[in-house]
Amino acid sequence: MPARLGHLLVTLALGATGVAVFLALGLPLPFLLGPLFACLLGALLRAPLSGTGQVGATLRTVLGVAVGTAVTPALIGRLPEMAYSVALIPLFVLIIGGVGYPFFRRVCGFDHATAYYSAMPGGLQDMLIFGEEAGGDVRALSLIHATRVLIIVTIAPFLLTSVWGVALTNPVGQPAADLPLAELVWMAAAAIIGWKLAARVGLFGASILGPLIVSAALSLGGIITHRPPAEAILAAQFFIGIGIGEKYAGVTLAELRRDVLAGGAFCIILGILALIFAEGVSLAGLAPPIEAFLAFAPGGQAEMAVLSIVAGADLAFVVTHHLVRIIIVITGAPIVARLTKR
Fold first, then answer.
1. Considering its fold, how many domains does the chain have in total?
2. pTM for this prediction
3. Residue at 177 is within a domain
């Protein structure tokens, strides 16, 4: 058996064990947090872990379709309502960068490129690519952003249940057997074609954004009227959880003390900023508290989509804000980086 295949089987087995433990203990989000913590523990214990490659990326397309199917004519009519809260996203990103860069550069002692892209609240893969091109420490960037996502995804469910009393038991979707076969075929086509086309044109977050665009068009046209089946969304949660946990494979004590601790400390700063903005949006009557919190929680767009689904929140509202944040970071961060370098 090739070593990589063996590592993948260990990773999948750990993820499945995590699901079983979380289900047995009645803990929230067993298919997301169970694999996440099982693989995190395995990584810290030096278990041979591996990424899930194309399988994981393929299942992320399910979340893109789930978001796209939430784009309906009724939602389009609501877009002006979102304009005021969406307009706060650039300020939110600017403040995060303005606080984060000095923190990583002066307090933590990272070099310019690593500090800059550690502070940017963008997608993990995009920040790694930009950071590597700028000469940053890719391993440190990976651990810092993985820690950001890990902490946000871990704390957010407990805040939702303890502060707002959300049960997180909202059905993620109907069983596949209950959905029209024609719609399942259209969903699969939207997922694969959207992903490949987006990747071909170099669109960021292609595995989510491509399927989102195609399925949104099909939803607006009345061709798709349901969310992807529950089985597919649970599988997507499983592989997202594994993907976060296995990022810590091979982590050393020195990296734990420096990179992971820095990422954790920065996450506290991010959390405070996110809560301030979310509270402001809620008090201004721009969104209900739950939607405001999920819209400004600086996790990954896939993870926030999962939380929105299980919380029964307005999925389109939440993901719209995260897409705007990611677009601003992806397009603006390299430009600002070049200007500051000069």
1. 1
2. 0.81
3. yes
Residue 188 domain-assigned? yes
Q: What is the span of the domain harbouring residue 254?
A: 63-341
What token pair was written down for 191? 């997922």
Instruction: Tell me the C-alpha distance between 210 and 61, whole Å.
Output: 8
Examine residue 335 and state whether it is found in any structural domain, yes or no: yes
As given in the structure block, the two tokens for residue 161 are: 């249940």
212 located within any domain: yes
Per-residue pLDDT tens over the stretch 39-77: 999 998 889 888 887 888 888 899 889 888 888 887 788
Mean pLDDT over each residue of the chain, to the nearest integer: 88
